[in-house]
Write a structure and sequence with these properties.
The protein is about 25% helix and about 45% strand. The protein is of the alpha+beta class and about 160 residues long. Belongs to the AHA1 family.
Length: about 160
């Protein structure tokens, strides 16, 4: 399992997940830059993702949905901020309706993903910041730590393939 640390801080309003991969930074970057690779790892194994739009450039959008084991579709979106290929990118991540419009009342996180060389491979640091402690608690209660850890765990298989 590549996830090596998970920290949530209700005072700082952040969730930080650290993962190590036995692959170069450029290869890990490609997992996020290529929509076909991303959809293999964005959702947990029981909620596979389908990427509809993917534009990993400043101001770009990524839209996707995850399909539950019973066939229900849960949509989401990214609005991309800064991109420093292959080292980092930022984005807003939110829940969406079937037309990929933001769902009011559900948390939006501001995410910073960074990739750095570490012990001959890559250390990925995933930081999500929320507007309030209640928003962070809401996603924690929804199982974001377990879901994200399972999703990130799929990256090793993709990198080995």
């Amino acid at each position: 399992m590549p996830v090596t640390d998970v920290q949530h801080d209700l005072d700082a309003l952040t969730l930080t997940i650290t993962a190590d991969f036995a692959a170069p930074v450029e290869r890990v970057w490609q997992v996020y830059a290529d929509p076909r690779q991303l959809e293999k790892v964005w959702g947990p194994p029981t909620y596979p993702a389908t990427v509809v739009d993917h534009d990993l450039t400043p101001g770009g959008r990524m839209t996707y949905y995850m399909t539950s084991p019973t066939g229900e579709k849960h949509a989401g979106y990214w609005v991309v901020g800064e991109v420093d290929e292959p080292r980092s990118f930022t984005f807003e991540d939110g829940f969406a309706d079937a037309d990929f419009n933001p769902l009011p009342g559900l948390p939006v996180s501001r995410c910073v993903y960074t990739f750095a060389e570490h012990d001959g491979g890559t250390r990925a640091t995933y930081v999500s910041a929320y507007a309030s402690a209640e928003a962070l608690q809401q996603v924690l209660d929804m199982g974001v730590v377990e879901g994200a850890s399972a999703a990130i765990g799929q990256i090793d298989v993709l990198l080995a393939g």
